[in-house]
Amino acid sequence: MSDFGTEELSARGVCAQARPFSYFDAFVKTFSDAYDRESNPDGYINLAVAQNNLTVDLLHDRFNDALKELSPSTTAQYDDMKGSHAMRCAMARHMTRRVVADDSVEAVRAEDLVLSSGAGAVIENLVFCVCNEGDGVFIPSPYYPAFPNDLRARLGVQTVPVSSTRSSASRGQVCLPQAARRRNIEERKDLHMKMILLSNPSNPQGIIYSREDMEETIVWAVSQKLHVISDEIYACSIFGEGGHAFVSAISIVEKLIKDALDRGDAEFAQNCRDYVHVVYGMSKDFCASGYRVGALWTQNAGIHRALDNVSYFCAIPGPMQHALAIVLNDDEFLDGFFEENRKRLRKQYATVAERIDASVIEIVPTSGMFVYFNLRKYLPEIQPTYEDEHRLWNHIYTEAKVVLTPGKDCASDEPGWFRMCFAAVPEHTLRQAIERIRAAFETIRDSSRC
Amino acid sequence: MSDFGTEELSARGVCAQARPFSYFDAFVKTFSDAYDRESNPDGYINLAVAQNNLTVDLLHDRFNDALKELSPSTTAQYDDMKGSHAMRCAMARHMTRRVVADDSVEAVRAEDLVLSSGAGAVIENLVFCVCNEGDGVFIPSPYYPAFPNDLRARLGVQTVPVSSTRSSASRGQVCLPQAARRRNIEERKDLHMKMILLSNPSNPQGIIYSREDMEETIVWAVSQKLHVISDEIYACSIFGEGGHAFVSAISIVEKLIKDALDRGDAEFAQNCRDYVHVVYGMSKDFCASGYRVGALWTQNAGIHRALDNVSYFCAIPGPMQHALAIVLNDDEFLDGFFEENRKRLRKQYATVAERIDASVIEIVPTSGMFVYFNLRKYLPEIQPTYEDEHRLWNHIYTEAKVVLTPGKDCASDEPGWFRMCFAAVPEHTLRQAIERIRAAFETIRDSSRC
């Protein structure tokens, strides 16, 4: 590591030099040789980035329109680092209408929100407030492959995967509370387990936890004084039928608080307020990862007070907030946009489902922008390993020039799983990628297994 | 502190709840009762925020114009988290022309820059890379009052002020290298001193370090393997005559490297590359604290590698970078803008100098947007304390309803100093503030000293 001048850096600075996921360098390499139908038909196709390229045109056009309502010069000056009043109100309004979407609970309050430069920044700040260096966070697995780095890079917080797959016979029936209990606090005595971080709809599986699962998990966690982070960044990207209905943790916790107060359990109600947090943002549902907008919903006064201070390091520019508040308040546009986006996601997923051997799709996604599929049949039959998985990943990378996310990075509980982000590219590019992958599978069959 | 739910938070989360400076709550209180000539003539006037309100109109108009060149939808998607290629090139170009402005050294290279959401984020990330929790950073004092919080809030890094005032008889002749040496590493054995962080032009004094002072400090620090951060965020806000000419640390270090290589000292040349870093941004020179743009210049490969990772938590939105690159490349506009800004700063400072008793202005500022003046004559004559300073600050706050920065927050080496940010308000408001302060001084004279 002497190339990187580690001698003169801090231990944590050296630690942060670690790449955020195993395929990072391969991933970056694709940028300089990216596929283009006309100019570079043999280039790499990157399906490892959870980015929605399908509907970004609509959103960005509306954003550019909003810029015509010129921001005042006050947006060039300091404002509340947790987000401007207008933007927090607009985000609260959107979340009330489309994320929570539950008339039986109070509207999301702007003062419960903190807006920062992306959901990654939001999660980092929240975990910072709760965890000391070396503390641990449970994450139901398979999980979003960047979570471990988000918690480790600057915070030194450890992630402990807990398998949320009920059994290999019933893929797709996740089993959150049992999973969390299975790995209980006692199991890792060396770590202080402080939180459980889950994504719902889930990344990489594209499925939705049931209301019962979520409620049981929250009740269990709050009783254990474990903080719960529900990352709901795909809440408006539900495109498929047949899964559970999405219920925001905001709905669940508000109901738990009401029930607790009804039965006179003020302490449990307060713990629900203090221990349950929701993360949202514009990177996924709005196809706008480049806008760098994340949102935290929490009723924990101590966390708000700490964020009064540290939000300074990751605030959103005033002119962005000015324009985005206009977009977020445009219900006619947004309702149409989300409908169109769901339609495009559905169509794009159909392109995958039609072209990929149905046997590998054990979990049918209903949300998000990815499919998590099982390529075990291309691994050695007897005791396949993660090295075998890596060889298969590399075969697809070098032969098909397609980048997928290997299951190992998602803490999959067995080798052979891969995540394909099908919305990252236009349909014709996706078709091309699948053709290449199929051809690469043929060369495995023709020779021997990877 | 039970109101703030500290029980369920981490030690560092609780620590971050501390306010960033002593007058924070008083400062925030002014927002809800802010002075307005027409609607609230008795409201608070906040002169404790280093924000340039004088020329923001010109810059923001140009920015709004730049938005008419619509950004492509790729700006809504992921890009290099250290800054887009176009924006880094544009920032490098501006820094070459107007910050370094030295034909004898190479142009600033875009690849040596990392752009993040504000100079605070840049400094935090840089200190993170170099310092472990509990390590120490020397800061020549008096210093920018938010530096200690910037280093402590999330990093747990300690700041050690070193007085840079040569003697009370020669205010304004700062003496950087001697100051740094006076408090040498041995002096604080409990802390690992890793860096020296200085602002040049200096905040709060508004003065410029001489080339000799800077060079001697850098040579000394690099020889000690202390990292140097030169915060040059006011480099283009030099409005007065009579001080030293500003020389960027980039000029100095490039010359040191060349000289070292000429005499065959490759190790010292490499250490210069690894240990000297420059911070810049758009909050001050561009009057645009709300744009949240900070820049790090460093040639340290290890720091760049760590920032490849952690820049993700504080990236600048794509559409902002698109528009700001256009502004930064518009030399005709920028040359006129900086000239006009210097003119307005000069005029505004003249308003202060004409109205405030000359005897209190012991240090005549030539740069920045503040004057650091000595109100000791309003403190008790015998052994005045920082409590006396606070009483005077509070007298001005309650009687004049004007917020100043007390010297104690700047680690002044004696009580009685105050920073007034004279560009934070329009001229008529500044006049009003000074009238009120003068009247408040009268009530001290009429009764007794504070």
From TrEMBL, chains A, B:
Keywords: Pyridoxal phosphate. Residues 50-437 form the Aminotransferase class I/classII large domain. It comes from the Eukaryota. GO terms for biological process: amino acid metabolic process. InterPro entries: Aminotransferase_I/II_large, Ethylene_sulfur-biosynth, PyrdxlP-dep_Trfase, PyrdxlP-dep_Trfase_major, PyrdxlP-dep_Trfase_small. GO terms for molecular function: pyridoxal phosphate binding; transaminase activity. SUPFAM superfamilies: PLP-dependent transferases. PANTHER family: AMINOTRANSFERASE CLASS I_CLASSII DOMAIN-CONTAINING PROTEIN (PTHR43795:SF39), BIFUNCTIONAL ASPARTATE AMINOTRANSFERASE AND GLUTAMATE/ASPARTATE-PREPHENATE AMINOTRANSFERASE-RELATED (PTHR43795). This is Aminotransferase class I/classII large domain-containing protein. It comes from Ostreococcus lucimarinus (strain CCE9901).
